[in-house]
Amino acid sequence: STMRQSRIKRTKTVCTYCGVGCSFDIWTKDRQILKVEPTYEAPTNGISTCVKGKFGWEFVNSPDRLTSPLIRRGDKFYEASWEEAYQLIAEKMTAIKQQYGPDAFMFIASSKASNEEAYLLQKLARNVIGTNNVDNDSTYCQDPATYGLRTTVGYGGDSGSIHDMEKADLIMTIGSNTAESHPVWATRVKRAHKLKGTKLVVVDIRKHEMAERADVWVKPKPGTDGIWILGLSKYLVDQGWIDRKFLTERVDGVDDYIESLAPYTLEYTAQMTGIPKETTVKVAEMIHEAHAMSILWAMGVTQQRDGSETSLAISNLLLLTGNFGRPGTGGYPLRGHNNVQGASDFGAKPHFLPGYQDPSDDEVRARFKKVWGTEIPKNMGVNNQELTGEILKGRIKMLYVVGEDTALVDADANQVRDAFSQLEFMVVQEIFMTKTAQYADVILPASPSLEKEGTFVNTERRIQRFYQAMEPLKGTKPDWIILQEVAQHLGANWPVYRHPSEIMDEVAQLTPLLAGVRYDRLEGYHTLQWPVAPDGTDSPLLYIDRFHKPGGKAQLTPMSFVGPSQEAEKFDLHINNGQLLEHFHEGNMTYRVRGIEHLVPEVFVEVSKELAMERNLKDGMMVRLVSPTGSVKVPVLITDRVSGHELYLPMNSRGEGAINNITGTGIDTRTDTPAYKETVAYMEILDEE
Ligand code: SF4
């Protein structure tokens, strides 16, 4: 009947999981999700999706959804009206601001919420409270890559599109489990490798699917990939296989950089990294023969003490060999969450206003003051990684979290939980009762992407609209509405934003990087890749004629490695961690999708055949892994993906198996990103059946 037909709706949306940013149509009937239908119009993925994008939506109808504001009394939460919750929030925030000042607040934006929501949260922090203490998840993952790229070539994002990357004749991945973490991106790499003869070099300590497919698998000792890149770079220089013309015309600091490579001989590099000399020579030859090389990297690089240095080394290698500014070339740090790029682009960073503008720049501050009507704080704010310390020192009294499970994802989760229980007041906007929300004083029930409109930015700097497929679940509100209502209750002088497009208009007015971004230019499958000029011209491929640096020239920068930490000898095992294809990060969404939970219900730790022999381990045997900061209990899975004393624990594991119970306190020297990939432990065998 027509009645029934009219309830069936087709809506363009963008995947809510990884940073590839696949887009597709989703068919719904009221709240029921009928199917996901990819289309050739989708700019990044075309008709491809992975299991998460295709089947990962059922969480929106989970009985676990929060449907009423909750207020804590003692150990329990009570349902409250929105008005009651807002009044309490306003009262407490005002009192804390009066007593301790604006820098006693910290705001954490969601890397899953929209750009407009990230913008409003940082506006709440800076304009209403008056602090730069605002951050997002990127401190946990890709800030080192951003640092490396900003220092060398200028923009902290992928230097081209997935289509530019496909034109490479050599693709190198470093510390990226691409097939499981960025499945559709991996499909493109595999297709190029198989059908077009694109060469593939995979640098990873673990022999995952991509390593198995690679023409050359390069296996460094943990934490030494940066050293290897320098060794490789030196060999290229020595052979005369660098692009002298490109360097002369477009790059500064060449001689100093080349000089700094002197210690990294083939012998030294082999000794430090465990990578045979012949492998380094082979890869150098492949780079020499390639007309265009792209390098992809991810958390295996960035979540190390030397994450920033290694990212610099990668970008430097691309510069040395003239691999920027042409199709097939460039650096691609693959972003984890669907909108971790956008949360930073739209200003949820303690040292950046929207569009990476410097809050200490007077001209920038004047521009914001004109539109916002208040002074913008100058000082650099607190980041996520510093948060626990700042709370424990009594400097941060209030925490405002939008859609992040900080208590679970932060390294050294035990310490984080101690800190949270010392806060005077905490507000969480969430769709589920998470570990973090359990510490809140007020929880505000939010609506996920299918229930609202907005935009996301994917790993290609591509801004994409998503449309409302269904009404917000009864009792919930979109974050951009909640944030406005909180601001109103705090007496803020904000315009009334009736639609996210009006928020975007304000961003465009304030932000040169996004000057030409407008909703009507993003209709349907139309997208814009920043920077976007005022006339709407966007920039899929960066650095064609100039780098985004003073004078238009890239900058080669020498590095200083600190090396992995030296823990006591009893911690004789190295624990790597990463994604499983079927689950996403901490699993708050994917564990609520029945089909997906059944595919991979259990946590496990991968151990090598050698270690199994040495310790007499069997599949399924329970072990405890004890690190300097905590322990996890997990069953063993024997595999040849890992070797020797290197173990692999998926980051999606839950409860007693959660990886962050054992990760340490090491951080990247430049960005404070936790060195998650550096965990060491010893093993106790719990059952010996
Ligand atoms: Fe979603 Fe990433 Fe899978 Fe694409 S590859 S469908 S964006 S999880």
Describe this structure in words.
This protein has 689 residues and is an alpha/beta fold. It folds into three domains: 70-140 and 338-462 and 473-514, Rossmann fold, CATH 3.40.50.740; 143-333, Dimethylsulfoxide Reductase, domain 2 (3-Layer(aba) Sandwich), CATH 3.40.228.10; 573-685, Barwin-like endoglucanases. It is built from 25 helices and 26 strands. Strands 5-4-16-15-14-6-7 form a seven-stranded mixed β-sheet. Strands 22-24-23-26-21-25 form a six-stranded mixed β-sheet. Strands 10-9-8-12-13 form a five-stranded parallel β-sheet. It is globular. It starts with a helix and ends with a strand. Iron/sulfur cluster binds at residues 15, 17-18, 20-22, 45, 49-50, 52-53, 182-184. One of its GO terms (molecular function) is NADH dehydrogenase activity. Residues 8-64 form the 4Fe-4S Mo/W bis-MGD-type domain. It comes from Sulfobacillus thermosulfidooxidans (strain DSM 9293 / VKM B-1269 / AT-1).
